[in-house]
Amino acid sequence: MTKLELLKQLEAEIAKDVSLPLRQSNLVFGEGNPDCAVMFIGEAPGFHEDQLRRPFVGRGGQLLNEAIVSLGWKREDVYITNIVKRRPPENRDPLPEEIEVYKPYLTRQVEIIDPKVIVPLGRFAMNYFLPEAKISRDQGHAFRVNGRLVVPLFHPAAALRSTQVLEQFKESFLKLPAIVAGGGASELVPSVVPEKPKIPPQAKLF
């Protein structure tokens, strides 16, 4: 099967999964080039995304589009999705348990697309790949995770609320072509973020 066929199969599987939360909202699976080099991952759809069933189409999406175009890229050249595939009520942050149940589907989506670089947008998406990272400290840096480069950036919605964050968002975005090309990445890769220690099941009882 092609990547596109596998993605459509996965989307249908999510649509049928009645155990998933937020089913009062529309499914926003993701869109873009399944053969992309760069995959952008946000936290969850908002109002406009829910209405159009497309990721990043509101004000934050417009900023993301502008940033992509500023690199000489096109939106259709990359792939864009979220961890949580349906809109939380009133655009609240996704709950940890909501993120947890959607995680396996995102994992499979990433495996199908197999991008060279993953760009998590915001702390929720970043912590999926880098549990110990902090967005204010680690955004704009490249981390190697399971053989892929992960470059967390501020969420576009956060950038729209702060001039300082917006400047950092744009500055960090400009690093992406060099990271994709493999040039300059060595300067951007900081110390590996330590994984959380695994606690034996019996230890959790005390």
TrEMBL record:
Which CDD domains does UniProt cross-reference here? UDG-F4_TTUDGA_SPO1dp_like
* Signal peptide limits: none
Q: Known Pfam families for this protein? A: UDG
The terms under GO molecular function for this entry are: 4 iron, 4 sulfur cluster binding; metal ion binding; uracil DNA N-glycosylase activity
Q: Which NCBIfam families match?
A: UDG_fam4 (TIGR00758)
Q: Which family does it belong to?
A: Belongs to the uracil-DNA glycosylase (UDG) superfamily. Type 4 (UDGa) family.
The name of this protein is Type-4 uracil-DNA glycosylase
